[in-house]
Amino acid sequence: MAPARVVAVVLLAVGSLLLSAAADTATAPSPQPFVWQKAHATFYGGADASDTMGGACGYGNLFAEGYGTRTAALSTVLFNDGAACGQCYKIACDRKRADPLFCKPGVTVTVMATNFCPPNDALPNDNGGWCNTPRPHFDMAQPAWEKIGVYKGGIIPVMYQRVPCVKRGGVRFRINGHDYFNLVLVSNVAAAGSIKSMDVKSSDSEDWMPMARNWGANWHSLANLTRKMLSFRLTNTDGHTLVFNDVVPKGWTFGQSFVSKLQF
Ligand SMILES: *[C@@H]1O[C@H](CO)[C@@H](O)[C@H](O)[C@H]1NC(C)=O
Fold first, then answer.
1. 181 and 151, same structural domain?
2. Among 9, 15, 37, 109, which residue's CB has the most CB atoms within a 10 Å radius?
3. Which of 64, 68, 65 is nearest to 45 (CA)?
4. For 10-22, what is each residue's pLDDT tens digit?
5. What CATH code is carried by the domain that includes residue 83?
6. Which region is the signal sequence (predicted)?
7. What is the pLDDT of residues 86-143, one digit of tens each?
8. Distance 224 CA to ligand 1 centre (A)
């Protein structure tokens, strides 16, 4: 390649890097994906992850939902009022900051955000108040934590980055609530993992109605949608939108789940 063309190609490459960096800061949720950042990690539950039921995202029984034990509770700054529910993080023990005896070298584990690790203001940030603001902290299911840490360590410094979530099958919806209050749990979301906005449309209407995040991965609508055929429109936190046409059949009842064929 002639030198002038090499320069042009390099400039182009630098230009697009700058552009994508600018786009990231404009649209990326907090924390930014694909950048290694520092945090700490502890574990909860038993070695059988018996405490992986429930959680502040509302996914329910994590085994039944297919999430297994690769799950974590996030501190306030990471949890972001539930906006982080469903996001995935690759985590490694940080040997530079840890007692090397407590790090398992050369391994990472990927966990999904399923829960909130509440602050404990009675304890200092550096001694038990691990999830206090402004600390980024992962309280992981024990089997996931033990992939990267040695039990005796208890708490380890980690490096983490957001990664796309990998899921089998389509996005799922579970409807709870009552007439004029539909609480829809959105789960099994691949890629970004987290949802930025959601709308609902019933088959007897032309109009999409916005839903609001109620708690965790639960979104609500105050319309009376009972037993009507429903479509949902989801936009994930990467800005991609999918329409789930007629994913809920006419005659549905509260407590039912619906598996779509679509995935991000
Ligand atoms: C909500 O809609 C359903 C189905 O159309 C209807 O049977 C029910 O009475 C409505 N609920 C209320 C409280 O109006």
1. no
2. 109
3. 68
4. 444 444 443 333 3
5. 2.40.40.10
6. 1-23
7. 999 999 999 999 888 999 999 999 999 999 999 999 999 999 999 999 999 999 999 9
8. 6
